[in-house]
Design goal:
about 270 residues; YgfZ/GcvT; alpha+beta; globular; five-stranded antiparallel sheet; six-stranded antiparallel β-barrel
């Protein structure tokens, strides 16, 4: 968790992040992200407005210390403090939240903790943040990641950061970026791609009988020519950035894959 607080916290986040932070009401959260000046996604995160002058970011994959250090370079004279909240545990369960619903979260960082509705068409899920330790359960974590991918939520490892535009990752499905608000890093490229209809690639959900490796995706008839690339994988399912009009089957590093529809309901 990253905390942004201070009189300029909301204004600073609005100028840096790709989603419309100022449209977010206290007690609610949204998908959001930070882009490079060339419009490539550095990190995707859940952004919560805990108070009018306090924002919380839940990073699923990005290194928090590196994220804080890089973001802090742009504070200049803004009245905002950016800190990595250590000592907190994030854990999930495949059950409906007790109180949270859709974009409205429940609780506070302390003492009882936060509760977010992370469910979608694939079923209910709850994400909780508290000071209480959470036991590691690799099988449940793998199931959680597979749920993310099935709903079109890409999980970017360090090799995939700063490579993809929001449109290439179909982040419009999560309502994670805005083309109407003011300037932010990469905004010109995002807006131009949107308004000129230049988004030719998006996420395709793939499934195979074996584990899908990260790498190029090819047609079986032309295995030497890549038509897409695996963005993130979870066992025998993966998300690939590919032409929107592409049809399968496909080969990912020699593994034959078929396309499945992305599930909905995860937008906030």
């Amino acid at each position: 968790m990253i905390r942004l607080d201070g009189a300029d916290a909301s204004r600073f986040a609005q100028a840096q992040f790709m989603g419309d932070v100022e449209a977010l009401a206290p007690g609610h959260w949204q998908w959001n992200g930070w882009l490079t000046p060339k419009g490539r996604l550095v990190a995707l995160f859940a952004l919560l407005r805990a108070q009018p002058d306090q924002l919380l970011l839940l990073l699923a994959d990005a290194d928090p210390e590196g994220f804080v250090a890089e973001l802090s370079r742009y504070v200049f004279r803004s009245k905002v403090r950016i800190a990595h909240e250590t000592g907190l545990a994030v854990h999930g369960r495949f059950e409906a939240p007790a109180t949270a619903a859709a974009a409205a979260f429940a609780g506070a960082v302390s003492p009882a903790g936060l509760e977010l509705d992370f469910g979608g068409d694939g079923g209910p899920r709850t994400l909780a943040v508290s000071a209480a330790p959470a036991p590691e359960r690799p099988e449940a974590a793998a199931r959680w990641r597979a749920f993310d991918l099935a709903h079109g939520l890409p999980r970017l490892d360090p090799t995939q950061a700063s490579q993809w535009t929001p449109q290439q990752l179909s982040l419009d499905r999560l309502r994670a970026y805005s083309v109407k608000k003011g300037c932010y890093p990469g905004q010109e490229i995002v807006a131009r791609t949107h308004f000129l209809g230049q988004a030719k690639r998006g996420l395709v959900r793939l499934r195979a009988e074996a584990a899908i490796p990260v790498g190029p995706v090819c047609a079986p008839a032309d295995p030497g020519r890549a038509v897409g690339s695996i963005v993130s994988a979870a066992g025998n399912e993966a998300l690939a950035a590919m032409p929107l009009d592409a049809t399968g089957p496909w080969l990912a590093a020699g593994v034959e894959c078929t396309a499945l529809p992305l599930l909905g309901g995860l937008a906030r």
